[in-house]
Specification:
mainly beta; 39% strand
Length: 224
């Protein structure tokens, strides 16, 4: 297994490689996107002066085993702990007509600045990751078009990582939001933040459809 960092050109190669799996559905086959099975905490680096969004594309084989982690948006020094944490997670494979297939799953790791409830984050929301090129046909995963940080709930001492499995419908709206790894006192803040995000829906054979991505919020209280 290896970790690679690629820009838009690299993502074009990634998407092209995925066409073999998605091509099985060209005649109307039912595709079910990959998902996160189990997840844990991601460490918030002590030397991080501010938050940010690290965007990853995880390559999964037909058994749901992670084969590669492609960095779509690199935010030093946050990328290394994001990768280290996600590499410990497990995944469910995608299926086509009930049969497991290789696929890619977008994973967004948000390092949430300490901002007690009602306090705006200085500098606004996290930078939105670059888009996967949309001219490759057949299949494109859902993409983030607008992102925001979560408000740290007042009167709580909680910290840790809330990992959400987020379904994006064919209109680009959030559908089902499932907590894969929760933190008491922080789950609602993460869910409410994701409901404010904007998405481009998944595309298959030129048509919009339902897709899925994982969004993780890494919370840490101000320890100073």
């Amino acid at each position: 297994m290896r970790t690679s960092r690629r820009g838009a050109a690299g993502l074009m190669v990634i998407a092209a490689l995925a066409l073999g799996a998605w091509g099985q559905g060209e005649n109307g086959g039912k595709f079910v996107a990959a998902d996160v099975a189990a997840a844990g905490n991601v460490a918030y680096p002590m030397n991080a002066a501010q938050g940010g969004l690290v965007s990853l594309l995880v390559k999964l084989d037909e058994n749901g085993a992670a084969q590669d982690w492609h960095v779509v948006q690199d935010v030093p020094p946050l990328t290394a702990p994001a990768l280290e944490g996600v590499k410990k997670w497990t995944f469910h494979a995608a299926t086509m007509n009930g049969k497991n297939v290789a696929a890619y799953l977008p994973v967004q790791v948000v390092f949430n600045p300490y901002n007690p409830g009602g306090t705006a984050v200085s500098g606004g929301g996290p930078k939105v990751p670059a888009a996967v090129p949309s001219n490759l046909g057949n299949w494109m995963p859902p993409q983030v078009r607008m992102a925001s940080y979560a408000f740290y709930p007042p009167n709580t001492e909680a910290q840790g990582t809330v990992v959400l499995s987020v379904t994006v419908d064919k209109s680009g709206h959030t559908g089902r939001i499932k907590i894969v790894h929760g933190v008491a006192g922080l789950n609602d803040a993460a869910i409410e933040a994701v409901k404010q995000w904007g998405f481009q829906p998944a595309m298959r054979d030129g048509q919009t459809g339902t897709g899925r991505m994982c969004i993780a919020f890494v919370f840490q209280r101000n320890l100073s």
